[in-house]
Write the structure tokens for this entry.
Amino acid sequence: MLQPFNDQSALYLQVARMLEDGILRGIYPAEEQVPSTNELARVYKINPATAAKGINLLVDEGILYKRRGIGMFVAPGAAQAIAARRKAAFYNDYVIALAKEAASLGIDAEELAQMVRRAAAEKEEQG
Amino acid sequence: MNGKQHPELRAEGLRLRYGKNEVLHGIDLTLRPGCIYGLVGRNGAGKTTLLSCLTGQLAVSEGAVTCGGQPVWENPAALANLCFSREIGTTLGGGPNNMKVRDYLEAAALFLPHWDKEYAARLVARFGLDERKKICKLSKGMLSMVTIVIALASRAPITILDEPVAGLDVVAREDFYKLLLEDYAETGRTFVISTHIIEEAASVFEEVILLDEGRILEMGETDELVGQFAAVTGAEEAVDAVCAGHRVLTCERLGRQKQCVVRLPGGPGALRAGGEVDVEPLTLQKVFVTLCGHEEKGGGAA
């Protein structure tokens, strides 16, 4: 889970994304405390203000909430909310890019659909 | 973090001339308490000169430098808040610097009223520095470590490091950033760090100051600044269509492909990106090269 930050989007967005990934995978279940700003800063070697910006983004979205004097906690229903939001963005973020790359390789819609079905079936078998 | 008791460092209309040669051309700058600043600029941009003026080690030709409202020049009360840890020379007064590391640190402590001797000892041990070694016998990496020990153990409310990682290998550099952030989490003091190794330091800087030819070209939140730039790549006509009406800073062509760097104060959302072009963010290093990489001057040697 501790991949170094290497994608190019703004660091605070990467912090938020990384915490969201942790929530989605159940590393941080509802009502569990997430790492503090200073912990995130130390481990990822980023400015604490950047880490705080990422955390605050999730607070604004209702994914995390603050317990005064203790820290940041995962809100009930956070994983479902993240999944719903990412599902809505899935078409724009993944499917369009997939179709674009397929078109530039001369893969037609039917072939692409077959590939997607095969990948989904393999994923299902692996469980 | 208790940034409250920490003062603000301010330069107003700062100019510095060496004889007739003006090196800094009217710098206005406010360093707020409790922030980590990165100072970046090309060789000869005036970084070390600026830092020397800010810390009262060089008299300004015009303008004022104040710390907590007090002038810094020859003012011990204001200087007590400042530590400027610069690159150490291996020579001293024409001969080799024969001071031992231990004596060098003790001498530095005399000028640093907040000096934390115990912290200095811990850092020396962590870096594996031999205190009995003479300064002139230290490697470049070890000299950098001594400057870092002085800066961190100074516990000065405003701590300035000039090229602290220049001589360090990648493991020691990572260690430095970690120590820096640990100390910052604990004390919330202000740091200013100048560096040429921009990419790996970018994530540590809350704000970045971009100095170019004696002027501040940009100053602001690192994320915010970087977020204003985008690289647009694709077929020439498609790139031109997307970039039309925006501020294009650089263009490069490769066959029928074209890449333009554009500046979008509102972020890349302002681009009407069609399907045919790729829009990618820039790194701080690329932003720096785009803004400061002007054509070499004095084209006499054609």
Notes: Residues 3-224 of chain B form a domain with the Rossmann fold fold (CATH 3.40.50.300). Chain B has two domains: 3-224, 227-292. Residues 297-302 of chain B have pLDDT under 50 and may be disordered. The two ends of chain B are 56 Å apart (CA to CA).
